[in-house]
Amino acid sequence: MLLTKRRRTESTRSNAPAPTKRTESTLNPNGLLELLPLAPEPLRSEIWFDDGNIIVQAENTQFRLFKGALCSSSDVFKDLVEDMADLTAEDGCPLLLLSDSAVELTYVLRTIFHRWSYPPNQPLAFDVIAAFLRLGRKYEIKPLYDDALARLGAVFPPSLSQYVDSKMMDHIQFPDPEDPNRRGQIVVDTIILARELGIPSLLPAAFWFTCTRLESLANKHTSAIFEADRDVILLAAKPLSIAYASYLFGWLDETPANCSQPAVCTNTKLKYSLKQWKPPGSAMTLYWRSSAENGLCRTCVAAGQKHHSEGAKRLWTELPAFFNLPPWAEMLANAPGV
C-alpha cells in the first residue's frame, strides 16, 4: 500500500537530525564567556557531484546529488524534495536531512548514481542486501526491494528443489570466505532481518539450517536472535529430527517383497542406519546420497530413492509448523511488498 504524500514525508523525516549549528562560544549562567567544542564538519560522501543541485544528509555524511535523478528513482524522494521550502540551504543547495544510516543510504544511492557499483547476477554483501530491503521498502524503490528479497529468497526458499539446488555463495558475498562460521552468521542475520521487516517466509529454511547445526547456537553472534526464536529452534530440533529420520529414511527398516538379496540388503541397511542416521538427525541433509546405494539391489535402491524423495517433500511442506509459523501458502500470500 502506497503512503500518501503527507504520511510519506512525516514517516521519512520523523527522526531526522536537526541541522548542524556550529557554535564557538556562548555565555554561561554567570555571564562569563564559555568556549564550546565545534560541532564536527559533515563528511563528504563518495557520491558528490560538484554541479549537483541538492544535498542530502544522513547522520554526519552529505551527498551532493541531482534532484531529477533522485526524484525519478522514488516517489517518496519526490514528495520530500517538493516539500523542501522550509529546509536549510547548504553550499547554495537545499539540504534534505534523512534519518537513515549513512552507510545504508550510500549503498542505495550507488544504484541510482553509480549504476556500475553492483554488477547484475553477482553476489552482494549481506549488509548491502539488508540496506536494499530496508530502504527499498521505506522509499518505495520496488526494483531494489524485489532484487534483495529474491536473493534471500533463493537461499531461504519456500521450494524444496530451490533449497537443495541453491548455493549461498551464488547470491550472498561472504565477508571472510575462510571463516568457518560464515554461513551461520548469514543465517543469524537473516533471521533478525526477517523479524525486523516482517518477512516470515524466510524463517523456515533459516530455522532448519540452525536446527541441523545446533552448535551454531553457541556462536557469539546468535545472542542477537530474539530469545523467543532461540526457544522455538531448540524446542523444534528433536521432533524435527525424528520426523526427518522417519520421513526420509524409514525405508532402511523395510525390505521390499521383490528384493533380490533380502539377507544382504537387510544387513546393509542396518549398518547404514546405525552409522549415518541414528540417532535421528545426526546427518540431516535433504538430498539423496549415492553412497546409500552401495551393497543394495536395484529394487531396494529404487524403493529408497522414492521414499526419500516423497519424505523430503513432506518434511518441507510441514516445516513451518515445526516452528509455529503459518503454512507456506499463507506466508507467501501475505508477504509484504512495495
UniProtKB/TrEMBL annotation:
- Superkingdom to which the source organism belongs: Eukaryota
The protein here is known as BTB domain-containing protein
Q: Where is this region: Disordered?
A: 1-28
Q: Which organism is it from?
A: Mycena alexandri
